[in-house]
Amino acid sequence: MDTRPQRSWVPRILSGKGTRVFRRPVYIVWLSLLAAGFFALTFGINRLFAQKQQQLSRYWFQQAEIALTAGRPNEAISDLRTALLYSHDDPQYLFTLAQALEAAGRVPEARSYFLSLLEDEPGNGAFNLELARLAEKDNDVIHAMRYFNGAIYGAWDPNPVLKRQQVRQELINYLLAKGLKTQARGELLTLSTEMPKTTESELWLATAFSRLDDDRSALDFCKAALRLDRHNPAALLGAGEAAFRLVRYREALEYFKRAASIRNDPATAQWLQLTSLVLELNPFESRISASERRHRLILAMDIADRRLRQCAQTQNVLIEQPGNNQLQTARSQWIQLDNQIQKAHSDADLVQLLAPVASLIVNIEQQKACGPLTLTDQAALHVNQNAEELQP
């Protein structure tokens, strides 16, 4: 029996040094696969962690918005700080935090956040607007104007055109409140060319011009609104008020009648009654007869006499006795003019009395500490205050 060792069937490449050469790339492949697995696992964990952070930040941000809407700014501040722990330096969260701080009365902190945000985005319209409002609260006109203009010409998303118009409207309201009418007029003229031609925009412009005491422009914009909606009661009432202040009483009466036919509210009814009284009392019309002019003068003098007696009773003054008291002097003038009206022979004589009668009536109606003016007193006062414009 042959006891010599049998020759191995394994090829030489799998034994000895050759085996080690074969195993090395296998190890590399396995290590690479293992590293890739660990990398994928780590990436997945990190991604899940990031998603969880985003979910938590969104949750606390939503809670903050709810609290802020409900008027709980301090609670919103706490929720926003928590949200920022999971979403560091998010501009939206920082902006809302600044708004919450402002709502809570922590203005210096709010301003600091807004300024920091504006430094990163100097052209941001919303950041500029918030700083303008803070300057407005501080009565800082220069910085308010600066930031309002920054907001008007800043970047907005979405609806940039609409946002800029709204900011300009806010600026105009601010300027009017501060009595800066020249600047407000300039902004109004710019806005009037930019705003869309809608009933609402025309009415807004009419109201703004009315606050500027520019009744002519106010009437023009009310008419523009009526061309778009001829039955709009606000436009009819605004047009009537502007026409009334322009002493265009008959035109005003037509607007008030149309407004009353659509919406019979107390304000419209009062304007309609006042305008009707003004027309009945107006002695300055050139086309009325002498007897009608005399009638209107006597009617206005009677209204003034009642007012004078009311003032005398309130101030405990005997107006029928001569004296140096202002009411006694007015009563003496009233008697003299009343006699002249009664004795006037022609319409020319009555026209000569219009100016002194108007002056006396205004003096009597504007007496202080005599109680509120009745509607007839208001009508007599308005007519005679505008004597120069109404003179025939």
Brief summary of the model shown:
The chain is mainly alpha-helical and about 400 residues long. It contains 18 helices and no strands.
Polypeptide structure, described:
The structure is a single chain. This protein is an all-alpha fold and 392 residues long. Among the domains are: 211-281, Tetratricopeptide repeat domain (Serine Threonine Protein Phosphatase 5, Tetratricopeptide repeat); 290-390. Helix content is 76%, strand content 0%. The chain contains 18 helices and no strands. It has helices at 17-69, 73-86, 91-103, 107-120, 125-137, 141-152, 160-177, 181-194, 199-211, 215-228, 233-245, 249-262, 266-281, 290-315, 326-343, 347-365, 375-385, 387-390. Helix 1 runs antiparallel to helix 2, helix 10 (215-228) runs antiparallel to helix 11 (233-245) and helix 14 runs parallel beside helix 16. The chain is elongated and about 140 Å long. It starts with 16 loop residues before the first helix and ends with a helix.
Note the beta-strand portion.
under 5%
How far apart the termini lie comes to 158 Å
Query: What is the count of DSSP helices, taking H or I runs of 4+ residues?
Result: 18
Order of secondary-structure elements: HHHHHHHHHHHHHHHHHH
Helix content: over 70%
Question: What is the residue-averaged pLDDT?
Answer: 87
Radius of gyration: 41 Å
Low-confidence stretches: 7-15
* Class from secondary-structure proportions: mainly alpha
Apparent shape: elongated
Task: Describe the structure using short key phrases.
392 residues; mainly alpha; Serine Threonine Protein Phosphatase 5, Tetratricopeptide repeat; 18 helices; elongated
